[in-house]
Structures are given as structure tokens and as C-alpha cells.
Write a structure and sequence with these properties.
The chain is of the alpha/beta class. It has three domains: about 10-135, 3-Layer(aba) Sandwich (Rossmann fold), CATH 3.40.50; about 145-385, pyruvate-formate lyase- activating enzyme, CATH 3.80.30.20; about 390-450, Beta Barrel (OB fold (Dihydrolipoamide Acetyltransferase, E2P)), CATH 2.40.50.140. Helix content is about 35%, strand content about 25%. Helix 9 packs parallel to helix 10, helix 12 packs parallel to helix 13 and helix 13 (about 325-335) packs parallel to helix 14 (about 365-390). Bound molecules: S-adenosyl-L-homocysteine (SAH), iron/sulfur cluster and FE3-S4 cluster.
Amino acid sequence: MNTAPDRKKLFIKTYGCQMNVYDSERIAESLSTAGYDTVNTPDDADLVMLNTCHIREKAAEKIYSELGRIRQLATAKKERGGEMRVGVAGCVAQAEGAEIVRRQPLVDLVVGPQAYHRLPGMIGEMENGAAAQVLTDFPAEDKFEALPKRAPRAAPTAFLSVQEGCDKFCAFCVVPYTRGAEFSRPVSQIMAEARRLAESGVRELTLLGQNVNAYHGEGADGGTVALAALCHEIAGVDGIERIRYTTSHPNDMSDDLIEAHTSLEVLMPYLHLPVQSGSDRVLKAMNRKHTGDEYIRLIERIRAARPDIALSGDFIVGFPGETDADFRDTMALIDAVGYAQAYSFKYSPRPGTPAAGAEQVPEEVKDERLAILQARLREQQVSFMQDCVGTQMPVLFEKKGREDGQLIGRSPYLQSVFVQAPETMMREIVTVNIDAISTNSLAGSLTDHTV
Ligand code: SAH
Ligand code: SF4
Ligand code: F3S
């Protein structure tokens, strides 16, 4: 991308969850007003921002090796007579604060997720020669109000954060510490953002929150609005044809939200509902506050409301104290549910969380369990994809594929679908035949009707 000579170049690298992807977009939009255009490589950037994730040890450590690489680029740029500034945002910034500058003095800015609206000011100070700045408190003002309005987007899909933070304190998880207490944005603010995105051509919105189904924002009449009602309101926005939401907690899967999957056609039949473990003993130790059976019964109710729903989940193997029998319970839960896809991780002790000090399951046991669990989840994913072959599905085309004349879109079940289709169909929802599966995607073709 070319930048105007008076504009500076910003490179942002994003780690972690979709909320970080959303935040990076907002950071880029905000820094655009401060004179920075986004570029695709860090090599010649004036400012490199890492938007980081602290969820597992590997994710956090990655940041320091990346900072080492950036240091080399900064040195090379200095030799060319230029300057590269470096900022660290996101959950590592929040968790480690000034420690980051101590470990890597190259860093000019450390900013936690609640303070992104302060970035232009911090950058102004930095450009005026201020020493390294660290901002990890939770400012009282509304970050979302203070950020500039959303810029128009090229893609027909967008993320929209509606809720942040978490009060659940699962024993393994850093999110309540890095993102703070649960907070829901007011409905009017979300609706304004949804309308603006729709006007710029967005057709699919994914509502985001660390606990999105715990959403309880202020409505127009001062009352509290839950996620189901929010989805109904957003469904009324001209141009919005698909709504998704993620990530949900089983205990916040209310009856009205389940019902919305029956009555709201625009609500896509896909649900990411992490369970972590199938063992009641482990679930209790994790502070998840539900049993395996309660989760399975919840899934039955969701399937009764929307029989074709594709289910996704998160699993942790090797949580402290997990025995072979506990692990077998997790495998039994997976068999009982049948996932369309899922994410799974080895337990990683996180500083400051309740489970971190407990005796650890040996690494090789974690490895073995993860391999068994992933193989089963993979079988289920392949079987779900195979069931799609021979059917027709509406696909929202989002971007060009690698092959000539190919477009890539998403099925209602969030699968990537590759189709030979004219570029004029970009941003359209088109019914396609599903012909075959590949590793993580489907191959489709236009129907006689659409050609
Ligand atoms: N809010 C979501 C998930 C947030 S973190 C929820 O409640 O489910 C995303 C996933 O990372 C979690 O679901 C969990 O499976 C995994 N995870 C979180 N902390 C972890 C840890 N310490 N070790 C391994 N995996 C972890
Ligand atoms: Fe972490 Fe649990 Fe909160 Fe999810 S619900 S963000 S896993 S503490
Ligand atoms: Fe990671 Fe923070 Fe998201 S720890 S998963 S970036 S909330």
C-alpha cells in the first residue's frame, strides 16, 4: 500500500481472539486520524503495534521473540536514517505492563485494552520525545464513545464488540484479569455502529464478547436488554442479513436466546459453546459451575430449537488433577454432542490464576490426551463436512480465491466455501452446490439457477 508523503506508516500484528481483531481495527482507525496509514509489512513502518494475547504461556512468550525480530528491523531502519517506534497493546500489555519495557527497552508504548482511545494522545507525547509510556489502568470514560466512528470496510462481514470483560473467574483463565469486569455497551451505541457498518456494505455482523451471551446493555427506555433482544433489533437494520455471536458461556444460554435460533432467520445456525471438560470433578475444579450432563441437556434444547445447528467448542486437556477417568468423561461428552468443529488446548498454567500453583499433569500425558481428543474432533468435523456434500447452501462471498475466477465465502455453518464464480457476485449471498470437502473447507459450484 502506498502512503502519502506526509502520512506515517503503521503496522499492526494481531494475536489471540476475535476481540483483538476488532480492537486492532479500531486502533488502526483511531491512528488514521493521528496521521498513520496501515501497511502490510513491518519492514519500513514508523510505528509497529503488537496486539497481544496472554491466554497461554506460548502465546505470551511469542511476543518477546517477535519484539526481538522488530528490534532488528528498527536497527536496520536507523542505519538508513529512519526511526521505528514500537507499541504493545492487548492482554500481555495489561498483564505485564512496565515489565515489557524492562525486558525489551525498545518498546515505547504499553497500552491495555481499556485505554485504546488514549493512544493518539500517547503517540503525540511519544513524538514529542516522551520516555516509554505504560497505560494499564481502566479509565473511567467510555472507550467506545471516545474512539472515532467506524470507517467504511471493503469486506461484507464485520465484527462488532458488544460486551467486554468477564466475571466468571474460571480457575485456569487470565481474561477476568486482563480484560477486567464484565461490561455491556448500550444498545443505542451498538445500533449506531451496526447501521454505519451496514451502510458501508456489511451484510454479516458477528457480535463479540468474552461472554457475549451475558450481554445486558442499557436499552432506549433505560431498562436492560439481553442478547436475544439485541439480535432482534439488529436484525431490523437495513442490509444486515446474517448475525452471529461469540463466545458464549453455557450458563448464560437463556431460553430467549435459544428461542431466537428458531424465530430469527438471520441468526446463523452456528454456535461456539465451550465446555472445557466432560468430567464433573474437573468442571468443578475449573469453577465452570455446570456439569457435563447439564451441558448435554442444554445442547439438546438448542438442537430442538434449531436442528441443523453446527456446534463448536473449546477443550482443555491436562487441567491439574485430571485423571484418565476424567479424560474418558470428556471423550464421552464429545461423542454425545457431536461437534462440527472445535478448538482444543493443553492446560497452560497462567500466573495469578487459581489453578497455576497446583500440581501439573505431566507434559507427555497432556500430549497423548490432546492427540486422542483432536483425532476424535477431527473425525466429527470431517463427518459434518461430508454431510454437507450434495446439499445446497447460501454462501456470502467475501474475497477472491487463489485460483483465477475463484471466490471464497462462508456457509451458514461458518465453513469456508471455494467456488468458481464471477467477481460481480462478491458481497452477495448466493446459493451454491456443495461438491467436495478439503482439509478445512468445502468446494462448491454455482447452481443452474445462479449461473
Ligand atoms: N470466554 C470464553 C473463552 C475465552 S479463552 C469461554 O468462556 O469459554 C478461549 C479458550 O482458551 C477457552 O475457552 C479455553 O479453552 C482456552 N484457555 C483459556 N485459558 C487457558 C489455559 N490457561 N490453558 C489452556 N487453555 C486455556
Ligand atoms: Fe475465561 Fe471462563 Fe471468563 Fe471464559 S468464562 S473468559 S474461560 S474466565
Ligand atoms: Fe487472548 Fe486476551 Fe483474547 S488473552 S484470547 S487476546 S481476551
